[in-house]
């Protein structure tokens, strides 16, 4: 077996040294009647070439985003990632290291975590950020639990512009934890009255901007009303590139900012692994879930970094911990940090401008197709179309023409008549003039 | 027994207190002092060429960002150097033995990385039409099959994003099953030796955690368990047990524990963090387990990447299977179907909700399946056997010098020592660990499990050769003898030879500095200005 260095001679000698006759003598703690003898009903070992053949044949059955005109967003985005990023994260010292429990020999990991925290804090305009969460959706669930701890209240109000799957994650977790969740109905236009939902029982208001439907939301009045009732504003975003161009949640009064960082440095990966961004105000830092890296000095006075404030965490506080999380998306936040370091604010701003510009062009082209309405007035790189017929059939028809056209809202919100014809469309820097023209022409044909 | 010591000093030298020239750069040879990106980049610089072309008029509706972000950029060569230099300050499994007990640092085959980067897996969107991703759905179903067969269970919830997230998923399924049956038990039993995530998970779901003591032999005290169950009759939701447990021991009474908890109306959650010890040797389904998460990164070697991402699918018994969260894959006569919403469920499917947006950790699934296929049924069993063999080999090599809290019985894939062998030497457990760094090793897990004072948990894994273990054992023996001889300086000041000396963790926690802030410009006194 190519991954196992012991030879049969080694095994025999080692068993003798241990003082047992056979390997099974080391498994005698497993009671005889439940010990598994024989081989699992699975294929035997395969060579490297065989594995490649089998997995490649599965992979080729899928249409990859890069192989077609591609406009699907809704929480995950197709961006170009510089080759340097993937090269660097594959360096053994990053890829095959573990949680930096021994800071003297894990400064590489700790320093990039510190850089990551700084980048996220600056992007969101918040005081502090943690060293990443699993992803945006689970981070949102954790943010709601955190708001409960901070405010000692347990009613969360979720905007109708929140990604439906994020909403389901929050509802599932909060309901199980005994909290109350008020979810507003789907709000494609961004015109809901969330303010009237906020009262003295409210622990937090969760608002996504740009919303699931692409609409940019003014968070300031919501923050103001929330604060009047001693509730927190949790601002959510799924497209971190938007922060290169739009006003960050931190300057709009958000108390916790949660987002998906996949767009920077990380591929689509059919849904994961992704990287959750989580930032908050200084005064709430000890209630924050997840891992934190802090600056310190070593015995010679040199600057160094360590994991810190671990007294919030499960390995010390056990059932009193702020969260049960004991990991972060280390390698994904490394990819984020490298890509963000390459961009800097100059590159990020340019990237965001191109994304938005391409979306405006796409909106103009699609909006000109007969029978198509665009719902959004203010948006970043994603918007919602109302089609003259059910969107899921249109998307399938477009897929047959080789265009992956967006997300029919009914896929995530089935059985809702008023949402049946809605299509969420995203555009990024990867879309070309030809892609857009192909989309518009094909849409015309399908709707004709 | 042979040990290759060619080219190595056979005696410990004086540890680092030799002459060291002070350098202008702060570097020591190839040991680089690397500033933060914020100290080297500039706001005008950028390592990506982007062509804005002709942009149309923006439609941001007054939401444009006004203030500067304040993030410097780096040109590509600078970025490359920065992160390569940082990487060199890291220990990694590819660089040497990483015996972190309970963390399972084994070889990460690069084939897995290559497979995960196939565009058909890496570059597909979770919400593109289902008809355009049949291979992805087939892969998830195939991995689920391997997991169910190797655990002897009926269903698997694939989407949890890490081990602790899997625990949460399993306990949510348990809570949903109780609720569906009209029960509201309030207590979850958690043995003392459990991972801290276990009580944290139970508490997160509103359960009251009741601890169960361990016997002197390091396993669950069955009598204490029975008494506790009797005390809380009718109010027990379940038990969370780690098996093999965190002391590196298999819970011999596991069937009995399962029976007792089932009789009490509770479910048996098994923390599967240590499943790598028993793949092909015992199936959790046969042990009476109702739910168990599998850390794909540990047992099936997806890379840990500095602490993540993980992936924690949860296998479920037939009793819990109906409550598995969305999404899941359903087999039909026509093939495989992805069920994403409650509206698409059928009779008998009662998902408790959703653990995460999208389908979970696809990138990790590819790596894990690649690893499992590479091993096959025969290789997976061999890997477990070798992991256990290697741990016992280390145990036997050190047990006369170090102290075993539970006697000289066989251990599973990790061996637990305590620090009583350091008594009266003036060397602490932490000192001992830091001295291992100077020898080129990542220290073992320390202080955990909590049931043992000064715990030292060593997990060599199946990736280590006999020569590698021999050298490790010899090094450990040398360190122990050195401590016993009273050479305290070798320990108290260690590490001497790492990129950093010991770091002030207390100071870091007292005044947390969690991000870089631009230093204040230096005050220029009038005299200096002249």
UniProtKB/TrEMBL annotation, chain A:
InterPro entries: GcvPA, GDC-P_N, GDC_P, PyrdxlP-dep_Trfase, PyrdxlP-dep_Trfase_major, PyrdxlP-dep_Trfase_small. PANTHER family: GLYCINE CLEAVAGE SYSTEM P-PROTEIN, GLYCINE DEHYDROGENASE (DECARBOXYLATING). Gene3D superfamilies: Aspartate Aminotransferase, domain 1, Type I PLP-dependent aspartate aminotransferase-like (Major domain). The glycine cleavage system is composed of four proteins: P, T, L and H. In this organism, the P 'protein' is a heterodimer of two subunits. NCBIfam families: PRK00451.1 (NF001696). It catalyses: N(6)-[(R)-lipoyl]-L-lysyl-[glycine-cleavage complex H protein] + glycine + H(+) = N(6)-[(R)-S(8)-aminomethyldihydrolipoyl]-L-lysyl-[glycine-cleavage complex H protein] + CO2. GO terms for biological process: glycine decarboxylation via glycine cleavage system; nucleoside metabolic process. Signal peptide: none annotated. It comes from the Bacteria. It is an enzyme of class 1 (oxidoreductase). Its EC number is 1.4.4.2. Residues 1-401 form the Glycine cleavage system P-protein N-terminal domain. Keywords: Oxidoreductase. The keyword Oxidoreductase applies. The glycine cleavage system catalyzes the degradation of glycine. The P protein binds the alpha-amino group of glycine through its pyridoxal phosphate cofactor; CO(2) is released and the remaining methylamine moiety is then transferred to the lipoamide cofactor of the H protein. Pfam families: GDC-P. The keyword Oxidoreductase applies. The gene is gcvPA. This is Probable glycine dehydrogenase (decarboxylating) subunit 1. GO terms for molecular function: glycine dehydrogenase (decarboxylating) activity. Belongs to the GcvP family. N-terminal subunit subfamily.
TrEMBL record, chain B:
Keywords: Oxidoreductase, Pyridoxal phosphate. Residues 383-481 form the Glycine dehydrogenase C-terminal domain. Transmembrane segments: none annotated. InterPro entries: Aminotrans_V_dom, GDC-P_C, GDC_P, PyrdxlP-dep_Trfase, PyrdxlP-dep_Trfase_major, PyrdxlP-dep_Trfase_small. One of its GO terms (cellular component) is cytosol. Pfam families: Aminotran_5, GcvP2_C. Residues 1-22, 508-530 are annotated as: Disordered. Its EC number is 1.4.4.2. The keyword Oxidoreductase applies. It is an enzyme of class 1 (oxidoreductase). Residues 181-305 form the Aminotransferase class V domain. One of its GO terms (molecular function) is glycine binding. It catalyses: N(6)-[(R)-lipoyl]-L-lysyl-[glycine-cleavage complex H protein] + glycine + H(+) = N(6)-[(R)-S(8)-aminomethyldihydrolipoyl]-L-lysyl-[glycine-cleavage complex H protein] + CO2. The glycine cleavage system catalyzes the degradation of glycine. The P protein binds the alpha-amino group of glycine through its pyridoxal phosphate cofactor; CO(2) is released and the remaining methylamine moiety is then transferred to the lipoamide cofactor of the H protein. PANTHER family: GLYCINE DEHYDROGENASE (DECARBOXYLATING), MITOCHONDRIAL, GLYCINE DEHYDROGENASE, DECARBOXYLATING. This is glycine dehydrogenase (aminomethyl-transferring). It comes from Roseibium alexandrii (strain DSM 17067 / NCIMB 14079 / DFL-11) (Labrenzia alexandrii).
């Amino acid at each position: 077996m190519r991954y196992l260095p012991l030879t049969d001679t080694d095994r025999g000698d080692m068993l003798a040294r241990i003082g047992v006759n056979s390997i099974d003598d080391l498994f005698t703690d497993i009671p005889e009647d439940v010990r598994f003898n024989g081989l699992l009903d699975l294929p035997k070992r395969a060579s490297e070439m065989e594995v490649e053949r089998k997995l490649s044949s599965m992979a080729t059955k899928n249409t990859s985003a890069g192989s077609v005109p591609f406009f699907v967003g809704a929480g995950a985005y197709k961006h170009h990632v510089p080759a340097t990023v993937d090269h660097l994260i594959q360096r053994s010292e990053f890829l095959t290291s573990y949680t930096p429990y021994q800071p003297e020999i894990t400064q590489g990991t700790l320093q990039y975590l510190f850089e990551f925290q700084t980048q996220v804090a600056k992007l969101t305009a918040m005081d502090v950020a943690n060293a990443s969460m699993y992803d945006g959706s689970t981070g949102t669930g954790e943010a709601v639990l955190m708001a409960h701890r901070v405010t000692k209240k347990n009613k969360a109000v979720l905007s109708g512009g929140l990604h439906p799957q994020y909403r389901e994650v929050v509802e599932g977790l909060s309901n199980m934890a005994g909290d109350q969740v008020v979810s507003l109905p789907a709000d494609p236009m961004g015109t809901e009255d969330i303010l009237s939902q906020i009262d003295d029982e409210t622990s937090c208001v969760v608002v996504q901007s740009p919303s699931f439907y692409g609409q940019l939301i003014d968070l300031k009045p919501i923050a103001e009303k929330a604060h009047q009732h001693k509730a927190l504003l949790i601002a959510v975003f799924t497209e971190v590139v938007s922060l290169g161009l739009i006003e960050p949640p931190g300057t709009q009064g958000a108390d916790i900012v949660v987002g998906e960082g996949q767009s920077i440095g990380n591929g689509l990966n059919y849904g994961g692994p992704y990287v959750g961004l989580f930032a908050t105000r200084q005064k709430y830092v000890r209630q924050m879930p997840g891992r934190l890296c802090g600056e310190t000095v070593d015995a010679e006075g040199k600057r160094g970094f360590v994991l810190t404030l671990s007294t919030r965490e499960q390995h010390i506080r056990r059932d009193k911990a702020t969260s049960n999380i004991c990991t972060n998306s280390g390698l994904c936040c490394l990819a984020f940090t490298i890509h963000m370091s390459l961009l800097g604010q100059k590159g990020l701003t340019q990237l965001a401008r191109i994304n938005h510009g391409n979306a405006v062009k796409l909106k103009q082209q699609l909006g000109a197709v007969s029978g198509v309405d665009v719902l959004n007035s203010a948006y970043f790189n994603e918007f919602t179309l109302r089609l003259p017929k059910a969107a899921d059939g249109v998307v399938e028809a477009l897929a047959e023409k080789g265009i992956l056209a967006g997300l029919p809202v009914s896929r995530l919100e089935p059985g809702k008549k008023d949402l049946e014809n809605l299509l969420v469309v995203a555009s990024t820097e990867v879309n070309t003039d030809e892609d857009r023209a192909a989309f518009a022409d094909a849409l015309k044909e399908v709707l004709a | 027994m042979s040990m290759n010591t060619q080219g190595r000093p056979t005696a410990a030298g004086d540890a680092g207190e030799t002459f060291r020239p002070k350098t202008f750069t702060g570097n020591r040879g190839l040991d680089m002092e690397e500033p933060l990106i914020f100290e080297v980049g500039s706001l005008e610089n950028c390592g990506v060429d982007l062509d804005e072309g002709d942009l149309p008029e923006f439609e941001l509706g007054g939401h444009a960002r006004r203030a500067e972000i304040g993030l410097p950029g780096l040109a590509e060569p600078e970025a490359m150097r920065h992160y390569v230099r940082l990487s060199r300050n890291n220990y990694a499994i590819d660089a040497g033995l990483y015996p972190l007990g309970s963390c399972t640092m084994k070889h990460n085959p690069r084939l897995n990385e290559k497979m995960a980067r196939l565009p058909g897996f890496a570059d597909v969107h979770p919400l593109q039409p289902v008809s355009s991703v049949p291979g992805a759905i087939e892969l998830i179903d195939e991995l689920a099959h391997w997991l169910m067969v190797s655990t002897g269970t009926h269903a698997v919830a694939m989407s949890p994003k890490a081990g602790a997230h899997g625990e949460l998923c399993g306990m949510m399924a348990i809570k949903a099953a109780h609720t569906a049956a009209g029960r509201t038990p309030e207590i979850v039993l958690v043995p003392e030796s459990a991972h801290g995530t276990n009580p944290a998970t139970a508490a997160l779901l509103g359960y009251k955690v009741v601890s169960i003591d361990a016997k002197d032999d390091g396993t669950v005290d069955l009598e204490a368990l029975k008494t506790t169950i009797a005390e809380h009759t009718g109010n027990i939701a379940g038990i969370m047990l780690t098996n093999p447990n965190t002391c590196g021991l298999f819970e011999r009474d596991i069937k009995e524990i399962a029976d007792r908890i089932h009789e009490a109306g509770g479910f048996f959650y098994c923390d599967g963090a240590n499943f790598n010890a028993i793949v092909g040797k015992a199936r959790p389904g046969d042990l009476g387990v109702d739910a168990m998460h599998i850390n794909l990164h540990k047992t099936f070697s997806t890379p840990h990447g500095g602490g993540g991402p993980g992936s924690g699918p949860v296998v479920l018994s037939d009793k819990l299977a109906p409550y598995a969260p969305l999404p899941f894959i359903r087999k039909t006569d026509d093939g495989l179907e992805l069920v994403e919403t409650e509206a698409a469920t059928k009779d008998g499917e009662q998902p408790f909700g959703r653990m995460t947006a999208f389908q979970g950790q696809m990138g990790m699934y590819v790596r894990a399946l690649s690893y499992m296929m590479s091993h096959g049924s025969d290789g997976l069993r061999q890997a477990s056997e070798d992991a256990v063999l290697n741990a016992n080999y280390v145990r036997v090599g050190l047990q006369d010098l170090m102290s075993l809290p539970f006697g000289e019985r066989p251990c599973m894939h990790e061996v637990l020592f305590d620090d009583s062998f350091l008594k009266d030497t003036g060397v602490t457990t932490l000192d001992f660990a830091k001295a291992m760094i100077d020898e080129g090793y990542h220290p073992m897990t320390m202080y955990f499990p909590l049931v043992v004072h000064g715990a030292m948990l060593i997990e060599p894994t199946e990736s280590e050769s006999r020569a590698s273990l021999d050298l490790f054992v010899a090094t450990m023996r040398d360190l122990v003898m050195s401590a016993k001889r009273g050479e305290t300086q070798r320990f108290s000041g260690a590490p001497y030879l790492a990129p950093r000396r010991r770091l002030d963790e207390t100071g870091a926690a007292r005044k947390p500095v969690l991000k870089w802030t631009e230093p204040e410009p230096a005050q220029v006194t009038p005299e200096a200005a002249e």
